[in-house]
Amino acid sequence: MQGRWAFDEGVALWRDFCLSSAEISQRELQGLEGYLRQQVQEIAALGLSEEEAFLIGVKRLEDRPSVSEDYRKIDKRNLWTTLLSEPVQTKERRARLRDLLFAIVLAISAGLSTEIPKLFGIGFAEDPAFYLKNLSFFVLPFVTIFFVLQRRISRLALVSIALTFFLSMLLVNLYSISEESQTLLLSAIHLPLFLWFITGSAYAGNGWRDVSRRMDFLRFTGEVFVYTTLLFCGIVVVTGLTNLLFAAIGIGAERNILEHFAVPAGVGSPVIAAYLVEQKRSVVENLAPVLARIFAPLLLCMMLVFLGVMLLTQKSPFLERNFLIGFDLMLILVLGIVFYIISTRKGTVHPQMYDWISLFLIVTALIIDVLALSAIVFRLSSYGVTPNKLAALGENVLVFVNLAGMALLYVRFFRAKISFCLLDKWQTRLLPVYALWLGFVALGFPLIFSSQ
Questions:
Q1: How many CA atoms lie within 13 A of 66 on its CB side?
Q2: Which value, to the nearest 10 degrees, does the dihedral of the CA atoms of residues 444, 449, 450, 451 take?
């Protein structure tokens, strides 16, 4: 009882101080107080005393004179006002303008980089394989530069990142991969994913080994994907309207608009998306976790229906190569959905509804993955080893280990054997393993399977 009284007294003193030292309305202060109480509850659930949690929660609100600005950053109705309006403080305004101009310059540079090969006679129609192999290098170096100049990165890390990009570009372009080769498509898919993890080391800065920084990078990945998708949709709409306008006056400009606007704008859009996510960080709840909570029950129902129909009809589509590719994409979606549910979970020690949904989703995916793995092994033993089959086998094994570990941890959490934070650690520990496999498929397979 004494602890509760002390906490309420502390909140009252904090509230009086805010009213006396900051330009803030009662409505805004109520929102901040609710936010503070939520922070204290979550921090105390980690094992700290209520007084310690209160001090940390107040510290997170940063300096008291800008408490009104802090409220606007958590007020969801003022998201775009916060992002687009000019800050009052000159220093902050200059920093935001500098970051915006820097992101625009990098986005334009990324778009213009797609025009450089054309100076040497390498166009989309003349050599599509070149653009497939080098797609990563039109985008990711510029996103990486954006974070290198924003984060504190050691010289060794900076040199390692630069060497990885340079050697990857050198190796991919030294390999003679024909357009019909299986390894061309494998490299085009896996290389951007591998280099995205390298970009993640720039994003995390010197804290890459820290679990929380790796979790931040995974959250950032989902947000960038959502924002880039929205930007792509806008580019498609503008491209279509521009084509219609030129067609209305009898000019067929489809190819020029596609090559000189749509492609450069699409290549530069991830840089702008990264900037927007950085500006939006901690302003409101991220979009990716919200989408994950919406689609988790839908995906679970779809997978259960699929299993039921397959059992009733006694037909297995896993021998179809295209289905296996689609299923791998679905497994990645399951991992992403479960991760974002985990990342936004509140600090209660008791299981919640979405914990059960996540476990059922994981178990269902595991059952289907076992069937897919058996089909891949059957295809390998019956038709021999090919790059596609071997890549699919490795990725399905990795995903199986990931899902199986998460399922076991969930069961132990439900039995009150472990803390929920161990699921975060399990997710982040596997990131280097994924990166190594993706790099091996992207850069090693073209050398091993040079004739396929």
A1: 13
A2: -170
